[in-house]
Amino acid sequence: MKNIYDHLHSEEILNRIDKLSANSKPQWGKMDVAQMLAHCSSFQAIAMGHSFPARGWLGILIGNFVKPIFYNDKPLPKNMSTIPTILIVDNKEFETEKEKLKQKIVTFQNDGPEKCTTNPHPFFGKLTSEQWGKGLYKHLDHHLKQFGV
Question: Sorted alphabetically, which Pfam families does this protein's record hold (predicted)?
Answer without folding.
Answer: DUF1569
